[in-house]
Structures are given as structure tokens and as C-alpha cells.
Amino acid sequence: MPLNYQNQMQLLQDILRNHQEDCCGSVSECEQVERLVKSLMANSNIHENIKPILQEVYQYSHAGISSSNLDTHITSHQQNLSQWVDGMNTYS
């Protein structure tokens, strides 16, 4: 059963929140984030103000996949992670 828009947003926020709280994550989580963002960006009902946030999240996850030290990558984006989740809550 495919995830609907709200489920996808919640899952994306959960993963980003976990990265922020735990200061660590996995490559598979970054890959999941990429898939979620692609799916959300393809949704015609998405709020226009979420698109720039999703693009930043996509760049973050894409860089995380190829990072030599994923935990350092996540730690260096702590402020962004918080802002992204807050922004998604505002427009979702």
C-alpha cells in the first residue's frame, strides 16, 4: 500500500528529527529521504513554500550518501534539520 502525502511528510520529518536528535544516521536513511522528496516533489498538491525546503533536504541527503563520515555530515547540518522540520510543519 503506497504512502499518502501526509504519511510521506510524517516519515520524512521523523527521519530528519532522528538525525537531529541522535546526530547520526545511515546511508539507507539518506536514500529513503531522497525517495520521499522525489515523490513529494512530483505531487501536484504540494504547497509551493515546501518545495525549496524539499530541494535543500534532497541536497542534504544526496551529500550524505556520498559522505566519507555521515555522522559529521549530519552534525554539521543540525540547525538546518531543525529549520526544515519546522518549515514542513508550517506548510503541511
Shape: globular
Percent range for β-strand residues: under 5%
Give average pLDDT, whole number: 94
- How many strand segments? 0
Determine the fraction of residues in helical runs and give it as a percent range.
Answer: over 70%
How many strands, what sense, and barrel or not for the largest sheet?
none
Query: What is the tally of helical segments?
Result: 5
How would you spell out the order of helices and strands?
HHHHH
The radius of gyration over CA amounts to 12 Å
Secondary-structure class: mainly alpha
How far from one another are the termini?
21 Å
> What multimeric state do the chains show?
single chain
Return residue spans where pLDDT drops below 50 for at least 5 consecutive residues: none
